[in-house]
Sequence to fold (611 residues):
Amino acid sequence: MSAPAITAGGTGRTKGFLSSLRGGDAIAHGVAFLFASTVLVVTLVLVWELWTHSELSRHKFGFNFLFTQDWDPGNGQFGALPFVYGTILTSVVALAISVPLGVGAAIFLAELAPRRVSDWLTFLVELLAAVPSVIYGLIAVFTLIPLMRDYIEPLIKHTLGELPAIGRFFSGPATGGGYLTAGVILAIMTFPFIISISREALLEVPRDQREAALALGATKWESTIQVVVPYARLGIFGSIFLALARALGETMAVTMVIGNDTTLHPSLLASGYTIASVIANEFAEASDNLHLSSLIEVGLVLFVITIIINALARVLVIATSGKGTARTS
Amino acid sequence: MNRLAYRKAVNKVMLTLTGVCTVLTVSILFIIFGYLVVNGAASIDWNFLTKLPKPTGELGGGMANAIVGSAMMVGLAAIIGLPIGFLGGIYLAEFSGKTFGFLLRYMADLLNGVPSIVIGIFAWTVIVVPMHTFSATAGGFALSLMLIPITMRSTEQFLLNVPRTLREGALALGAPKWKVIATVAVPAAMRGILTGMILGIARIAGESAPLLFTALNNEFWPSGINQPTAALPVMIYKHAMAPFDDYHRQAWAAGLVLLTMVLVTNVTARWIASRGIAVQKG
Fold:
């Protein structure tokens, strides 16, 4: 920035002195750079380690690994389909709940609530994002599971479960744990992201957009949903992608409620596994190399998916608000 | 006219619904905290804080070893992660060019978004496998990897908030850039930077997924950093999943301890941040 200005016009001895000071800057620059580049090095080494340690499984099963559903450590058969299915299903359930709820709350906080109230409520919601995953799991095990088992799952079973075509997705014994419960807890863990970032995006919408709509005779709701929300859509999508990335990789809370079953059940009420929870449960006990290698390979799959979704989310958030990865100065 | 009445009704209903969404989402925090207080407050006593866990089936005992183990691993993570994150943040705020700065910033955000369980696998491959044992070292290393990007980005943000005039004043006096950073920019942003570090530590202290197969668990006092070590979040998980009421009671207590720590640090950090950047006088 202004460093060249200092050295300009130096003569003789002072020039030597100044250049040594610039040398100090170079050293500081170099040291800081070295430490900053750890993130790059760590990420690259992480990919390398996951790649090499999953070699055994990659060679034995190839791409079929993702599309077969036998997970049998006893017989050395590993297919990750049940976990991929569980991961996608729980995340879809989570977003189906948290997107309407989160965007709704974001609209209220950005458009209706007075600024001070809105800031405080947003702070309380953001605190939810700081609550450790294992605490959500703890609460869910002792409150959400009985609630789902005794009231919500029987209700779903006797209504949606009776329908001809889609009934099989809502049938089976109501045990309380399973995909649906995991999805509900993931919804609670992800809406803080949606609310906080969507609200920012909505607050960025220029005032004249709203006023123009209102001047044309639109009601408050019509101006919000037809003008303000479409204007902020990239930021809102970005927040949804961030929430999705979090939901896909979430481990502890899901592991505690999903029921831990390696077979593939289509029903939402059934027990299952997500990628993260099968790793959490089996990794420490896995004894043979093929089992470990297969677990690391599902880890690699999870890593690649979350990286792609995170990267997309950041691009969207940068595009609208100048937050996220963009430099705010 | 009928149409207008309909539109007005839709307006009322939808706006009320957004309010309902807000009430639902905000109330969850109070529900969680309330549940933990009701179930856990009675179980936090002297035994919980000072005794080892009892074997399954016996009543009593505590989680003292897990508290010590958590402190060890979080401390280790802080020793590794905070300096790296701090200096990296200085690079991002003060030295980085456009392209490379963007790349590193992006990488830090991506690393921050990597699922913690995958970080655990990574720590397992580079520490547990060569050392042939689960250890606090591996757990601390895994946690430090989560701390680095958090610290780096928050340090950067707070440095960028330091007014430009302050820097220019020092530069105009002929100070080299490194001296401006060390004696002007960093001290001015120090309160914010420390706040960011504390929030980062609060975040990793609640992590359990990266410790499951790096630090594993232990029923006894830790006697060194190169052996399996208990941690409070892992203990909550194990106790909550065990079929014993006395274990559940202790899981609630540990959950309350953990949540209180997280809430107190976050509220304090918010309070400090709301007072703005402290420019040191003198």
Notes: Chain A touches chain B through 97 residues (CB under 8 Å). Residues 1-12, 323-329 of chain A have pLDDT under 50 and may be disordered. Residues 129 and 192 of chain A are 6 Å apart (CA to CA). The first strand of chain A starts at residue 71 and ends at 72.
